[in-house]
Amino acid sequence: xxxxxxxxxxxxxxxxxxxxxxxxxxxxxxxxxxxxxxxxxxxxxxxxxxxxxxxxxxxxxxxxxxxxxxxxxxxxxxxxxxxxxxxxxxxxxxxxxxxxxxxxxxxxxxxxxxxxxxxxxxxxxxxxxxxxxxxxxxxxxxxxxxxxxxxxxxxxxxxxxxxxxxxx
Length: 168
Fold this sequence. Notes:
Elements: H1 8-12, H2 19-50, H3 64-67, H4 70-90, H5 95-99, E1 102-106, H6 114-129, H7 133-136, H8 147-152, E2 154-158
Antiparallel strand pairs: 1-2
Helix pairs in contact: 2-4, 4-6
């Protein structure tokens, strides 16, 4: 966990994160994921073309065999899940969460287990798919918990701003 939170008791005293900072952090993360998808796509195309399995038809503007395959899409899913799971498990924050000073941990203030990461990863997209209702659910709860927080027994807290040192 970051330097600002040294123990679970300190985490539990931090304010709970609101809905809008969480959504904006997710938007930041989607930009990171888009970049990861591009890198994955580049390497996938290299591998497929090296083994002669690339049968795109650019003259027909049909790139479906290149990027529409089940294996390719499974790879995109694994890249996305890997980014979020590793970020939540290793640091309690994704890059977007760092920018907005958010941190996720279980309700005891400890880092998430792999099981909790998977539950968050499965329920989070459902929270968005229902027109964001799973996120906006936090407006109606005192603890500001979204569906994936409730399902994974975790919470997102707002970290304090770092104090700037004055130059002399």
